[in-house]
Every structure is written in structure tokens, then in C-alpha cells.
# Entry
Amino acid sequence: MGLIEASSRKKRVKFVLYVLIVIMTITDIVLLGRYLINGKNIALLNPKGFIAEQQYSLMMFTIATLMLIAIPSLFTLYFTAWKYRESNTKIHQATKSKHSKYLVFTMWLVPTVIMIVLAVVMWSGTHKLVPQKQISSDKKPLTVQVI
# Structure
């Protein structure tokens, strides 16, 4: 095994360890959150009725979608800050960088697509829950008299 192969293998092992640490940290945070709310009657997380269940599913979809954006973004931020820190003498910073149209297009496309997906799902989901629309149920409607 040559010197270059050993160096490459060390870098790969180091990267895998960093990824495992990040995955374990996220798992620990999720498990801690589940432990803290387990057995508690939190109204926001315990919907009652058809409309509340639909709103809950819309809220969970939105949270999951936004976490798909936030977690990689924060990881990239910290990774970039660590890689290009002042004390890192191993990194070669290119002084003449080109303007990449593909990179700019991708940086605008990804958030735009996510925004459109959220908008379509929210628009259709909230318009299903119009208050003037009769909710199908096998129970007798409740009449409320207001003075």
C-alpha cells in the first residue's frame, strides 16, 4: 500500500466518522424530543376531529419539508466554515474563480421548486377545509345559537 493510498484511506475514514457523528447527533435530538413529549397531552400534537387531523398532516408535511432544507444547509455551512478556516493551511484557495451559470441556476431552482411544492400542497389542502363546505359525518349536526 502506497503513501497516497494510505492518505486517501485516512481521509475517507475521517469523512465517514464525521457523517456518523452528524447522523448520531440528529438521532439523539429526535429521540430526546420524543422522550420529552411522550405521554403528554400536547394539543397541537394530538388533533381531535377531521379538520384538526388534516391541519396536523399539513403541518407535519411542512415541517418535514423544511427540515429537508435546513439540516443539509446547516451542515454545509459548518462544513464550509471548518474547511476554509484561517488556521487550515492545507487548503488551496483559488483566487480566480469563474462565474458558474449552472451553479447559480441550481441555487435558484432548488428553493423555487420547494416553494412551489409547498404552495401547491398548502393551497389544495386548505381549500379542502373550507368552513362553508359541509363535513360528511354519521352524527347529527350541532346547532349553536348565538345572541
